[in-house]
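agent: user wants the structure for GH92 family glycosyl hydrolase from Mucilaginibacter defluvii. delegating to structure tool.
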Amino acid sequence: MIKKIKRYVSALTLLSACSLPGLAQQNSGEGNLKYVDTRIGNVGALLEPTRPTVQLPNQMMRMFPIRKDYLDDQISSFPLLIVSHRMGEAFSIKPTTGAVTAKAFNERMTYDHDLEIIRPWYYKTYLIDQDITVEYVPGIKTGIYKFEFPAKGEKNLLLGTYNGDASAWNINGNEITGMETYHGDIKIYTYGIFSQTGTPGILNNGIPAAGTSVNGKNIKAFISFNNAAGSTVELKYAVSFVSAEQAKANFETEFKGDRGFDQLKQSGEQAWSKVINQIDVKGGTEAQKRSFYSALYRCYERPVNISEGNKYYSGYDKKIHESKRAFYVDDWTWDTYLAHHPLRTILDPAQEEDILNSYVNMYQQSGWVPTFPVLFGDHACMNGFHSTVSFLDAYNKGLRNYDTKVAYEGMRKNATQATMMPWMNGPKGPFLEDFYYANGYIPALHPGEKETIPGVHGFEKRQAVAVTLGASYDDWALAQYAKNIGKTADYNLFIKRADNYKKLWSDKDMLFMPKDDKGKFINIDPKFDGGMGGRDYYDENNGWTYQWQVQHDVPGLVSLMGGKEKFEARLDQLFREGLGRSKYELQAKFPDFTGIVGQFSMGNEPSFHIPYLYNFTDAPWKTQKRIRFLLDVWYKDNIFGIPGDEDGGGMTAFVVFSSMGFYPVTPGKPVYTIGSPMFENVTVDLPNGKKFRLIANNASVENKYIQSAKLNGKALNTPWFTHADLVSGGTLELEMGPKPNKQWGVQ
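agent: tool returned. relaying tokens verbatim.
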């Protein structure tokens, strides 16, 4: 029987290893790079898939083939630049062997999935109908495309744009320049050199014509090459948000000494090796390692450094700024403050300081600390001022290489003068914010009641409960920051506002429920009411998810629920409570509510901390059970291996933390709570030259329960340790077993 079980486990391991085709071909690279698979999650649960992004870690030159998702066997085009994580591209290029026609620009190219290679630093695909091989490598502000055409026949490269505003292409011999207008007024420039000199042309009213330059809207150009010069054509290019001259300077800087395709490929692999191998794990299954290291790769997709030549373009005041310090954009804070920012405080605190310094610059340039900082400015998205939490988290971990007083000034302005309405930017309105300041909650409308307040988003609504709970956490963080810098009066003001979450607690429903402007609870079905995504009252999730949105005061939430036993029972109920309707009915209205276990939604960010809340009860073993189950069920090493919108590191940072065995339940407090490590040994190389080690003796698929623990050789009887313990090079040693030790960690 034992032999049969071993053979069965081996078969399962082999099956998992084959979960994505061409895995051995895909996963070249040294050390742990072989476990990174960019295709994990490339088919979305319901909404957005992950994209197989090719770039250097946190650098702005990003590329992925333009297609619907991994199930799509056709590619529309190849971009010279992905401008934003999910918000646009610039400069399209596509090869063709047929005649240049208007139709050719719009035709999609069929590829073979099994012949496509996507590594974080290298891309290769084969276009079946055209018999063309395409390769790509990224630099920092540069890239190289290599096109291998058939030996005979036409060789054309079609050049277009992705944004309909004024743009330009100019081809002079083998030199090319371009300008594309993004988001209405941002000019993006490119400069490149082809390895061959071709014959340029433009599309004039849909008809190919001779020409070296074209400008206007929706422009199209092309360049054709003869067969005499060989079948391979390379395009080396650079981009700039500063100027055409800077694009050329970026080109000359990175391609100095005739640096070419192989050199960029090698340096790209080295850059990824450095960050991926910063965490080394031993033990676990091959599938678990692939899920883990692929998640770690995702954490370096954004934000991106857009500084070039000690300059950067800022969409916050539409000016070029001089600075020797990196300027970062493309950070969706509602998604990333929970785990992504805290992970960076461990792995690269200096970079986190640069990111927060960028936030300070954005405040100085625009008048507001951003919530979703992207290239064109602060993208009005989601709700809350969670950048405040990230500032506090960094400050309390000793990261202060930015103007802490100016940062506070901006955070305070957000908390007292900015609109609190979802998907809105700018000054507060005349009613809802002032009502919140006076009464401690955002008033909600009754079902069917028409909105009368100007400025409330027509689709996103008031999100009255979600905004109130998020603001309570943000105000707590602002209070703690004020205390740190000696602002006692402000501390007293905002620490009172941190308790505002209690204003919406309903003892009857044991949930946070909406109230009207007269202070009366509104009778709704918290599982389903509130319109699309529950946005009248909650946001993307229902009342059962928002029941737990008090990360800053979990003891206070425990008290509201009647003590630890009832709190634990309520957690149990969360994972077992029925939907009350069919899954398809729920998800038609709540498409973000994915990765469902009972009423728990693994596929959306507000749920990340919830399984760890058992560590506040007398049953920490249930955290260990839940975390292992959730990682195993929802984070597989295949194209469906992300249970919701990954959001460029927002979700996968949860996977990285949880797989290592600990998690920051309350960003802003420099402590971590312990879950159940996937691996027997985790070693983190810290930037200060020390190493943090987490040893989980006998850890396995079965042995997920902590029997005992030691921190730096001393018995640890609590499921908590501090950031100081970690960065000082501590060792956390756990003894693991197949059955829970129900006494460990209850003190």
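agent: one observation worth passing along. The CA atoms of residues 49 and 149 lie 31 Å apart.
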